[in-house]
Design goal:
cell membrane; OTOP1 protein; proton channel activity; two-stranded antiparallel ribbon; membrane; 15 helices
Length: about 575
């Protein structure tokens, strides 16, 4: 009977596994086709224009919109049904983060619409349709993720796999398009900066695909064109966050989960004052450094060198602090004896893989800079600061990844059930003189003042009391026993104090690293990129090869900082 009952479930898993494989292959081919189309437009391939790329992206967004509308309508008709939820997926702080990025993305879309109106005489209609479609897509997608990011789909699983994976790779293509557009803008500014540093032998002409006609209102055109590039970093983060949340939803399709209560872990500012203060100092100083860097770089050779030197010294100091904090946190973990949670969790697994995978972008740039410093024949003074900076980037990410991955895999500390309450009872002449407040107000019975009764405190057991003289003797013996027992419980208080101190240190470290990662996300996201500007790597590797490496690795490096900040926020809530 057991074999017969198990056969259908085993056989039924094959279609679902095939659907997972087929849907993943569909998504990959969808992405590769869009990636080649994007590349063809970037290199001016014959017969490929920007309108072709935008038409492809608009089609993908419309298909996703139809699928999301169908899913939302079907969910409304079945809203009374009890559905399984993945409590680890779609955390509230993650939804709030993606909502913030989505709002800024909508501002970006409005700028693009205004830009199209001003240049409508020479722009393709697709450049006006695209931001409108993208705005509608953004609004509906954020609503969908708020309502259904935790869903574990158990019906129409084959169809839903294709719909979700289509959404994942649509967002990845929109992310790629944003990265490419923002990178082309950075390259144009990069060439001008290198000329001021004395690298005048770079004669590559970069095309920014500017419209071939005059703007109807020059002032508005300038505001729209400049504002678009400052908003692109938020658009890029929005799409990569959306794709990761949708990927977790895709992995959860058909998954069987254990039904257990998930404890909510809200964020609290209590106990993390030190970490927040130091983190805010780093954040404030980083913003000041970025402002000065963007003002000074490219003005003259001396100012550009001073800007690079200032950036490297500040980054070296911050990275050294982050390495120290990460080492302290890992040492505290080594002193604790707590088991790891190895249960199946797609969201947690994806977090760990993204940390290591996206860190490879920074590691690639750092090793390139180290090799350039070693192999270069001439070394301007500011380039020597690049060596400790690059080494610290490698070490800091290595330590931080260990800390985050171990933190998200550690089981939360459980309250010792053997100690329900701890009281110190002082007895004089058979009467209770004082009762100190308990650590946890857990009572097995209520005692009234003046009645001579003392609550029983023996590991949560219930004590029977008698009204007669024998009962009084029994109460007296129990009270004496409770005094002896409470003396042995002082070890619980001392142990708990040590645990609280360790936890407070870990929370402060997590808060400090959270703000530091936000700080280190700002410079590359808003154009402060010494990998572009110091010029040494271009001499050693060549201009075009190094620019290709930077353009491929930089988006992953930027995403790493934002993803690390999100993971550290979760660590702070969990600790």
């Amino acid at each position: 009977m057991e074999k017969g009952s198990g056969a259908p479930s085993a056989g039924g898993s094959y279609p679902q596994k095939n659907a997972e494989i087929l849907s993943s292959q569909y998504g990959i081919n969808l992405f590769l086709a869009g990636l080649l189309l994007t590349f063809a437009w970037a290199v001016h391939a014959v017969g490929i224009s920007k309108s072709h790329l935008l038409s492809y992206l608009i089609t993908l967004m419309l298909i996703q919109l139809l699928w999301m509308l169908w899913y939302l309508c079907r969910s409304c008709t079945q809203r009374r049904l009890i559905r399984d939820k993945d409590t680890h997926a779609g955390a509230r702080w993650l939804k709030c983060g993606i909502t913030l990025f989505a709002v800024i993305t909508l501002i970006l879309d409005s700028f693009k619409i205004g830009y199209y109106i001003d240049f409508s005489n020479c722009l393709s209609p697709t450049e006006g349709i695209f931001p409108v479609t993208h705005a509608v897509h953004t609004i509906l997608q954020v609503y969908f993720l708020w309502c259904h990011a935790k869903d574990i789909i158990q019906s129409f699983k084959t169809l839903e796999r294709f719909g979700v994976i289509h959404s994942v790779f649509t967002n990845l293509l929109l992310w790629t398009n944003g990265v490419l557009t923002e990178s082309k803008h950075q390259l144009n500014e990069h060439k001008e900066r290198l000329i001021t540093l004395g690298f005048g032998n770079i004669t590559i002409v970069l095309d920014d695909h500017a419209p071939q006609c005059n703007c109807t209102t020059t002032t508005l055109c300038s505001i729209f064109s400049q504002g678009i590039y400052y908003l692109y970093p938020f658009n890029i983060e929005y799409h990569i966050l959306a794709s990761t949340m949708l990927y977790v939803l895709w992995k959860n399709i058909g998954r069987q989960v254990e039904h257990h209560q998930q404890h909510k872990t809200p964020f609290k500012f209590h106990g993390i004052t030190v970490g927040m203060i130091f983190g805010l100092i780093v954040l404030t100083s980083t913003i000041a450094i970025v402002v000065v860097y963007l003002i000074q770089i490219g003005r003259s050779k001396i100012k550009s060198e001073l800007a690079l030197t200032m950036f490297y010294l500040h980054a070296i100091f911050v990275l050294a602090l982050m390495c120290t904090a990460g080492i302290v946190a890992l040492l505290i973990y080594r002193l604790e004896d707590r088991s790891l949670d190895n249960s199946k969790n797609p969201a947690r697994k994806l977090d760990a893989e993204l940390l290591v995978g996206t860190a490879a972008g920074s590691w690639l740039l750092s090793w390139g800079s180290i090799l350039a410093i070693i192999c270069a024949q001439a070394h301007p003074k500011y380039t020597w600061y690049n060596l400790p900076y690059s080494i610290l980037v490698i070490i800091e990410k290595y330590i931080q990844n260990l800390f985050i991955i171990e933190s998200i895999h550690r089981e939360q500390e459980k309250v010792n059930d053997n100690i329900k309450t701890l009281r110190i009872v002082t007895i004089s002449r058979g009467s209770t003189l004082s009762l100190t407040p308990s650590y946890k107000e857990i009572y097995n019975g209520r005692a009234t003042r003046g009645s001579g009764q003392v609550p029983c405190l023996f590991k949560g057991s219930v004590c029977e009391r008698e009204n007669g003289g024998g009962g009084a003797k029994e109460e007296m013996s129990q009270e004496n026993s409770s005094v002896m027992h409470s003396a042995s419980d002082f070890s619980f208080y001392s142990g708990n104090s040590v645990t609280n101190n360790k936890r407070r240190i870990l929370k402060n470290i997590a808060a400090f690293l959270f703000l530091c990662n936000l700080s280190l996300w700002i410079p590359p996201a808003f154009g402060c990129r010494p990998e572009y500007d110091n010029g040494l790597e271009e001499i050693v590797f060549g201009f075009e090869p190094w620019i290709i490496v930077v353009n491929l690795a930089m988006p992953f490096s930027i995403f790493y900082r934002m993803h690390s900040a999100a993971s550290l926020f979760e660590v702070n809530c969990k600790t």
